[in-house]
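Morning!

This is the sequence you dropped in the shared folder:
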Amino acid sequence: MSGYKIVTDATVDLTPAWAERIGVDIIPMECQLDGAPYSFGPGGNISGEEFFAGMRQGKTGSTSQINPTVYESHFERFLSQGLDVVYLCFSSGLSGTIQAARICMEELREKYPDRKIACIDTLSASNGEGFLVNEAAAQQAAGLDFDTLVAWVEENKLKVAHWFTVEDLHHLHRGGRVSAATAIMGSALQIKPVMHCDNEGHLTNTAKARGRKKSLLALVDRMDASWTPEKGKRAFICHGDCMEDAKFMEAAILERHSDAEITIFHMGPIIGAHCGPGVIALFFWGSER
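The structure's back. Tokens below.
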């Protein structure tokens, strides 16, 4: 046994089977559809596909922060086995859930004074967080000890590029990301935002594209500009109920970068509730975010 466990949250949008294969524990998160409560993640009762299907039917999606008691039960399960815990958390720029995690960890440090507990703000979201978790698990499997892994994640988390676009601006308006006027005008003119997760972990609009395919290719253009395959050739595409678009973008990437190692995931509710069906995102090692 390695001596420590990597824990993360359901924001990562990795499948339970993927998480099990790489040896990572995922904490489920709560979401709602028209106020009806669900749990998303391992052992949960809703999938990303089901959540987006509900949104396409007109239901309103929302999310909740992780309860401190949920954190405690997950962390203590490993601490009680004599394992240290490294928690890679959803961006503080998008959620306050990290505060509950840190409060819980302070209490557990008193209860388990001989154990190490680290809480890392990934400043990442969706498969960007999942990408970082996946690469951290690979470093753990390669033999990095607790302190070295924590340092490695801190050093590399801002090198995970996050680029995404959405199909419908009205979801971003509801979440306060764009104005009502922008949502109405953009929808009428088929203007799509080109957005990314910046170094503070916030979602930021950086450009615009006219039409869906141009917006997808704009994401690929961003990969052309900053991909660093010498660090790793893996790339994740994450989509919200738009597999055809994900396949289109995969083909466009491989046409330009035939050695890219692409995996497509379905987005879950945690980010999907705020971006809506048709959201699509691209994550890879970059020279910058």
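Headline: Residues 65 and 97 are 5 Å apart (CA to CA).

More detail when I'm at my desk.
O.
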